[in-house]
Amino acid sequence: MDQRDLGIARYDAGADYLAALRRLKLEPEALFWAYDRTLEQFVLVIVTSLFDFAGPLALMRLLFDAYNAAATPKEVDPFILRLHSPKHALYRAAQPHIGARFDMADLKGRPLDRATIAGEVTPRAIASFRAGDLESFGTWVYKSTPISLKARTTDAERRWQRFESAVHALAA
After folding, report:
1. What is the pTM of this model?
2. If residue 142 lies in a helix (H) or strand (E), which one and from where to where?
3. Measured between alpha carbons, how far is 12 from 120 in angstroms, rounded to an integer?
4. Domain boundaries, the chain
5. Is 155 left (phi over 0), alpha (psi -120 to 50) or beta?
6. At 114, phi and psi to the nearest 5?
7. What is the mean pLDDT of the chain?
8. What integer pLDDT is reported at residue 145 of this predicted model?
9. Residue-wise pLDDT tens digits, 86-115
10. Dihedral through CA 75, CA 45, CA 98, CA 17, nearest 10?
11. What SS3 state is found at 106?
């Protein structure tokens, strides 16, 4: 697979999705596109410690509520989301390849990744990884943070309450 196969529209939708999550007070530990070779489709991988705190069902329900309220981009259907904990093997396997600390929001100017996906720039090296049936490239990563082994329950509870409140406020 070529890293340009993601396409500009999907790349931009992922960036918009991260911005929407941030508006909803959900700051994921990582967000990136991957190609699921079994399903033969792209999935947007969200890595968040809220997976461990609230569970995948509660998290997915809020993401569906946000989507139904048009708070997240319509181009990213919740059925293509893949939720993971920072403790999952997928994220541990991806870390060396996607970077220990990276946030697209910190970049100034036009992102090089977007130009690479558009075919305007040819990188000297191609960072890629496979974990299980998922394949991804460095250009598909919007955010990555180091794995924290010292997550506190009180912090997770506050983060969850902010996210939950922001989503529920959409219906008000």
Report:
1. 0.86
2. strand 141-144
3. 16
4. 3-171
5. alpha
6. -65, -40
7. 84
8. 83
9. 888 888 877 766 665 555 555 444 466 777
10. 40
11. helix
